[in-house]
Amino acid sequence: MLTATAKAQLRQSQKLESIGQLAAGRKQHIQRQPLDLNEIVRNLAKMMGRMLGEDVVLDLQLDAGLPSLNADPSALERVLMNLAVNARDAIPHGGRLRII
């Protein structure tokens, strides 16, 4: 039986692999390297907050125990920003975007 964290990591890995395949189809050069997902999210938090606007609160509840992942940092940043934009658009009257 997988723990919730292990399931989330597995989904993350599958999504990143899918992104890698999409990028390969577009002939983009992927530069995979070991990354700290929490560090990437923290580095994007200020920009995300500005992009979300005043009506959407960004709530980070990061798991300090996450292992590193092997991914392209630029692709991962684009994915996270796109998810934040989609979240903002889904709650036009304001709310909370929680990243766990």
Task: Briefly characterize the structure.
With 100 residues, the chain is an alpha+beta fold. It is built from three helices and four strands.
- Average residue pLDDT: 84
Tell me roughly what share of residues is in helical segments: 55-70%
Which segments are poorly predicted (pLDDT under 50) over 5 or more consecutive residues? none
Going by CATH, what is the homologous superfamily? Histidine kinase-like ATPase, C-terminal domain
Describe the sheet with the most strands.
2 strands, antiparallel
- Distance between termini? 21 Å
Please count the beta strands (DSSP E, at least 2 residues each).
4
Blueprint of the fold:
Layout: H1 4-25, E1 33-35, H2 37-52, E2 56-60, E3 69-71, H3 73-90, E4 95-99
Parallel strand pairs: 2-4
Antiparallel strand pairs: 1-3
Helix pairs in contact: 2-3
Give a description of the structure:
By secondary structure, this protein is an alpha+beta fold. It has a single domain, classed as 2-Layer Sandwich (Heat Shock Protein 90). The protein has helices at residues 4-25, 37-52, 73-90, and strands at 33-35, 56-60, 69-71, 95-99. The chain has a two-stranded antiparallel sheet with strand order 1-3. It has a two-stranded parallel ribbon with strand order 2-4. Helix 2 runs parallel beside helix 3. The protein is globular.
Characteristics of this structure?
Heat Shock Protein 90; two-stranded antiparallel sheet; globular; two-stranded parallel sheet; 100 residues; alpha+beta
